[in-house]
Amino acid sequence: MPSLSQFKLVFGGLLLAMLLASLDQTIVATALPTIVRDLGSTDQLSWVVTAYLLGATVSMPLWGRASDLYGRKPLFVAAIVVFLVGSALSGLAGTLGQLIGFRALQGLGAGGLMTLAMAIVGELVPGRERGRYQGYIQIVFIVASVAGPLLGGLFADHASWRWVFYVNLPIGAVALTLITTSLHLPVERRPVKLDYLGAALLAGSLSCLLLATTRGTDVLYAGFAVLLVAFIAQERRATEPVLPLRLFREPVFDIVAAALFMTTLALMVVIVFLPLFLQSELGMSATGSGFLLLPVLLAGTVSTILSGRAIAKTGRYKRYPLVGLGVMALGLVGLSTLDSASSTATIAALLVVFGLGFGLVSQVLTTAIQSAVDRRDLGIATASANLFRSLGGAVGVAAFGAVYAGASVFLYAAPAAVIGLLIVLALHEVPLPKLAVAR
């Protein structure tokens, strides 16, 4: 167990790494028009975003399982390096094709950052305290989701779109320094043979699924189904499966994965489509619509901190995602009533409601899943939680983008929060033991 001062340095590095990975999911969006004017090829524009999400999502289970087998620190350092190399190359890209390829590389590193930061917290922090520290990570995710579009627009308008990627380098260098000098984790040395075939089949099946959500072709859906069946067959006979099927025999794992899918689906509908509504219906600028998302950030931060502290005191956590998902559904229903005459005060109030609800859900569910699995599966369980979270976001954006019709899109998303609530009702709560963090 590290000393308290050492733990603070490590945790600071983890937060910076999570900030980088989360920020790059959204920071490019508002800079895309400028990128197109510089590099051209508007027909491939969406792939600048899709390549990153694809790389991050398909690599999450691989980073998680590899960290269970080979140790989390070396894998986390490798993920930071891959991400920074991808960032530097993206900033130097001379064509849109190059940028798409470098964004995919950047996404591969981001998958490790998002997964391993949470897994390291799960390893260093006792169960009852995890809610508080996972909550800080959740705050970083909320900040990045809201600040990303705003920063992207500012860089594109007042500097260069290339700084969308270059800004990662100094922040990443600080994170890398903190992790390499302060993080010390035990590594169980044992002969292992990573399931490379299983990893390839999983990456292929997830790629087909994510591409199908944007392309909608039967061939991609069929490819997903075939590769998924082959993956399951491989995992049944693999000595060290990349995604152990025993995880799916743990009810807490199944419930949390499904609930995180629904929660993130609802969040991304608000983050992605509200600015579109504000610009098209209310005539706001890109910067103005970005600022109006700040209530989600502030409200989510407050409820995340308060619920984390309450869990640390009581060890009880189930009530928070139940309340949170219900409040999210109410917020979405309220947002669906917006029209061109709606005031900014009304919009901000509804976003506060939604944000308060979201802040009670995601970090609590991550704590629940980490407390339910063995230490040997901590990395892959955390990675799988992030995987289903990312899939929910990707599917939500693709599915609701196809039916977008102004503020009625939020009404369509409200059932996702309600379904998430019903799923969490089945969660078996095991009170978390009270232990000290680091001394």
Please describe what this structure looks like:
This protein has 439 residues and is mainly α. The protein folds into 3 domains: 1-185, MFS general substrate transporter like domains (Growth Hormone, Chain: A), CATH 1.20.1250; 195-239; 244-430, Growth Hormone, Chain: A. It has helices at 4-26, 32-39, 47-70, 72-92, 96-124, 127-158, 163-166, 168-182, 196-215, 218-237, 251-281, 286-291, 294-314, 319-335, 344-358, 362-372, 378-402, 408-425. Helix 3 (47-70) runs antiparallel to helix 17 (378-402) and helix 9 runs antiparallel to helix 10. The longest helix is centred in the first third of the chain and has 32 residues, at 127-158. It is globular and about 60 Å long.
Short description:
77% of the residues lie in helices and 0% in strands.
Task: Looking at this protein, list some descriptive labels.
439 residues, mainly alpha, Growth Hormone, Chain: A, 18 helices, disordered C terminus
Classify the helix fraction into a percent range. over 70%
User: What's the rounded overall pLDDT mean?
Assistant: 83
Order of helices and strands: HHHHHHHHHHHHHHHHHH
For this structure, the CATH topology of the largest domain is Growth Hormone, Chain: A
Proportion in β-strands: under 5%
Q: How many discrete structural domains?
A: 3
Which architecture of the largest domain does the CATH hierarchy give at level 2?
Up-down Bundle
Report the sheet with the most strands, covering strand number, pairing sense and barrel closure: none
| Secondary-structure class | mainly alpha
**CA gyration radius, whole angstroms:** 21 Å
Number of helices: 18
Between the first and last Cα atoms, what is the distance in angstroms?
Answer: 8 Å
Uncertain segments: 435-439
Shape: globular
Strand tally, please?
0
CATH uppermost class of the largest domain: Mainly Alpha
CATH homologous superfamily designation of the largest domain: MFS general substrate transporter like domains
